[in-house]
């Protein structure tokens, strides 16, 4: 066996799924499993009795799928092969011909150390680089490893005898990223036998599962416990409200089908939504698309389609899972696009749908709880139809209308049998075992795995009432009683009716909690119009722009010759030219190439006013075109659009758990056993007390109560059905889902419950200056040219040419401002290029740049150093004494006046940059920036929240002090001339003093500080790296009042979470003693019917409490601080609140006039600045 295992370790394992018919019990599944595990070449075996499936991981070279099928049939069962992975080329330890090269032509470099450079695609953040680097930790043969996120390069020094370049690429791909070997510096090439050393490194899959039937934290705990210590599970996340589980796993140890079986064994319905190799996103060169296929009737047809697609130019790999009807196609985007792949499938006679679309539609339905609402509504109607007659016969007629009491009629055929009991039994049975069947199944499965859920309590309570009544009837028959026995059929039917009603109301309310996410997911249109020939369309747009004076009718006639076609939105590709007509929703991100029109971006960015878009303007997917016609070129489509990123952030926020929720889930896991114990204690305790007390409570002595046994049974049932862990489990996720949805509507994206909870404890905020407090659009406000460079106009022109050439290679805002000024002085347009060459460019972060430039006007080369005073002096440049203060035109600090109105633009001080040519100082430039209009008001609002602020910048101290004085930051909290690493150190220093620090920034140089801070807040206008490193993303970068608003919203959400937890805890702590009979001596009791009704209402109460977050408004003082007082006062009276609650629960949200046409409109509480 050991030999077999070692052999399997290096072999590719094929996963085969078979349908196994004829299994009836666990002994059957054990027979199938034991028969396969004894076979040579078989790895893991999983057999599901309920699904009638067997999933076998095996070495296809040793045992084929057909042999596995024969083995199962030999054991007396029917077997059909549903799917089997196409085996890859296998490399065995034995090399038949020592002098022969490998079949694939793979080579291994000699034993000398080699340096291999690999391009790594798909990395988006520091977590990605850590994942790649972690894969090489403790790997034999690796001497050193370095990786860069921005350049997408990894440089590895390794011993090629132990680790080849190809193996390095494979290991990176196994972590979920694309890898391509660019260069390996080594000596002699020899035949490779190292691929056989490919260890047990396997790909990691991320599988998303839709789970139905979860109602509370005990349910999620039950599912999660099923994966505890399971081999192959890397990470497991589950969301109650989203009804999704995301599992990272090794498919050779745990398949996606096994995950589904494990969940189903716990009593819940599970369905695979997607299963793909773990990674953040595909590279720009290669992309993997998942398709949902329709019309394939057999595994052979699936294989034919796979071969057809594999042979297409540009497709690198194709896998088709016949069982799930899903295909994963990896293609080179430059050679073949997604649309061509789908068209190839359709030409083959099948239909294909991009799986993301199918998954989104399924999630939209799941979020809206459409299926659950309809299902529980139907169950309630059926249950109520039977429960009302039972209630009338058992309770209402005997108490209030005795003349209609048909239940008191004694049947003469069987002594001791009464008509009312027979009718109640017949009416109760369909409810107990028809409507209640789902409760029995779920309860049985959860008990079998030792993780009882709320359904166990429902089954125990209703079963106790039903079977006790049946027992009372049997006793009455055998003893031939002359009085009607005490039965509780009404308790059973009414309890189930109340519980079903509660589930219906709960799902109805849950559907409202995710409205914001549902609206965001629905913003993109289903189809779009594009030009069949995008190149011809782009040329026509250029002609349109050039011939502006030509009559519009003639230009339209020229464009009319271009063929248009309509395609699904998910098939739009980068480079397509999309046609937008008035009123159309924009399907992708892009740049306008023809036409002008106003676009309503309120649904994505929160901007209240439509924005004019002209050629060159940026468009966002999900926004709405107004009256004009636009043609735009797609720059980002599908998952890469800003709308998709917003949806992804909101999804992550709403499915992640807050730390406070973990304790609630732990309590929910122990809740059911404790309640069952309390119920038994109640029954036994009162049975004993009712017999030993000389004067027991009066209820035990009343004949109408049914005697001591009946009273004790009812008390036990009341305890069991009253207690509800659902409210405890829903307290946090519902508040997080509603709160983050409200934030998303206002352009505030919070990445999960953990960030939300930490944001409530922030004591200090550190803000970047450029691009955060200021507009980030620097402009040269003055120049001081010295020496020979100021001798004549030609020399000055040459000076501007040299600094323009030096700054052409930099993307820094200051560099762009200097380049723009140089072009202006040289008389060039913004899109023209300064003639000349630039080389040896080097940017020193936080200091300046160096470059060797050669203008086209002469053949001389000049060495330029452009930067601040400190940097030039470090380079031994002799600076004039007058420039010690780094200031050409700064006003004295004492002359600075704070702005009286937040709406008035303020000069944010002057930044001085010095220029040295060939080692000599030649002059300086003064650059100024504009303060964002809401900066001062935002800082004042932050201070009012009790949070201190600091300003950190790489700029000079005088400028930083000037900006701090304008916005109201204390001079003691200003840090100037700070490098990116220095920002990180400042945050760490504040944290060491016990501060909970938030960092607000927007650039790549801010990303280390954003990641170090307790909470990182990024502006959406910033870089992707900064957005990825942040915990909170603000979609309106110029609206700094969103910073205090996000903190106020976080505090409001967290207060609601604590209130919900308190509400659910108090409900159980106060209600349980009453249900247990603590107040019986005073004649106060809780009947089982009332207990069931209270239990049904408890979870609904918590969900409605969370829905109240939809009424959140920015406080009036925050609006006043910003000078943004609404024209009309908002009603905050009790009747307004009640009306708002009614609208929320019913799903009828009040909309503004802009929302009347059905567009998604955020809650706007202030005027746009």
Question: Would you mind describing this structure in some detail?
Answer:
The protein has 1169 residues and is of the alpha+beta class. Helix content is 42%, strand content 21%. The chain folds into eight domains: 2-84, Alpha-Beta Plaits (2-Layer Sandwich), CATH 3.30.70; 107-197, Alpha-Beta Plaits; 205-277, Alpha-Beta Plaits (2-Layer Sandwich), CATH 3.30.70; 286-301 and 310-368, Alpha-Beta Plaits (2-Layer Sandwich), CATH 3.30.70; 369-513; 567-635, Calcium-transporting ATPase, cytoplasmic transduction domain A, CATH 2.70.150; 748-774 and 932-1035, HAD superfamily/HAD-like (Rossmann fold, 3-Layer(aba) Sandwich), CATH 3.40.50.1000; 777-930, 3-Layer(aba) Sandwich (Calcium-transporting ATPase, cytoplasmic domain N), CATH 3.40.1110. The protein is globular.
